[in-house]
Design brief:
With about 240 residues, the chain is mostly beta strands. A 7-stranded mixed β-sheet has the order 1-20-17-22-15-13-14. Strands 2-3-4-11-6-9-12 form a 7-stranded antiparallel β-sheet, with no helix packed on it.
């Protein structure tokens, strides 16, 4: 089953330092029909002004994947670690039994990023985080898995039977993805447009794809305007 989510359906919030588009219920936004999509709990598209950011705040029992599209984002947490994510990099953080962190933009241009929250398979895990820069050539060739279950050997481990994939496609290029049986895929045309199995996606539109319980579901993305596509495949709850 395929369902298109138009860009105007995303909740928008802005203040002097933050511009946000939240695809699912988050913070002050609550829609009982948009609480989660399988094990995908949040999908936030944020832009932080230079010299600003999220002050220290807690997380627990969540797998959090951050994809930086522009600028840089500095991560500081209660383990004493600090890391800087720049455009083209990805971070996966296991909040586990509890961690506090801050995310700030110490750069000179706005920091634009996608943050994805996935419910974990296990609880009370030791908090951790990992950083990676996917090969630009791989992203240009099609969907590249940037985070997946730890035992798959993915560059960034997450503790759920989920996959986060990224592609940067050119006009006329096609990319294929197969959703595993019993899983769902959330596809976001971040700043591009495409036709996907007969449905048109404009920039910032999303697509929800649910595979049958016992057979896979193939998706063919036919890019019409070049740009970034992110896909999150998660199990049913």
């Amino acid at each position: 089953m395929l369902v298109r989510i138009p860009a105007q359906a995303h909740y928008q919030f802005s203040n002097r330092w933050l511009g946000a588009r939240w695809h699912f219920s988050f913070d002050r936004y609550f829609d009982p029909l948009r609480v989660n999509f399988g094990a995908l709990r949040a999908y936030n598209h944020d832009r932080i002004a230079p010299g600003s950011g999220f002050p220290t705040h807690p997380h627990r029992e969540m797998e959090i994947v951050t994809v930086v599209l522009q600028g840089e984002l500095t991560h500081e947490d209660s383990t004493g670690r600090e890391l800087v994510l720049s455009a083209g990099e990805v971070e996966a953080m296991t909040a586990g039994r509890g961690i506090e962190h801050a995310e700030v933009n110490r750069g000179t241009v706005p920091a634009e990023f996608i943050q994805i929250w996935i419910l974990p398979q296990e609880s009370h895990l030791t908090p951790s985080h990992h950083q990676s820069r996917p090969d630009p050539a791989a992203l240009a060739a099609g969907f590249t898995v940037v985070a997946a279950r730890a035992d798959t050997g993915a560059a960034l481990p997450i503790y759920q039977d989920a996959r986060v994939a990224w592609a940067r496609l050119d006009r006329g290029q096609q990319a294929r993805w197969v959703v595993r049986p019993g899983h769902r895929a959330y596809l976001h045309a971040v700043d591009a447009s495409a036709a996907v199995e007969g449905l048109g996606l404009m920039a910032d539109d999303a697509l929800e794809a649910t595979a049958p319980a016992h057979e896979p579901l193939a998706l063919l993305v036919d890019c019409q305007e070049p740009g970034n596509f992110l896909l999150v495949e998660v199990p049913e709850l």
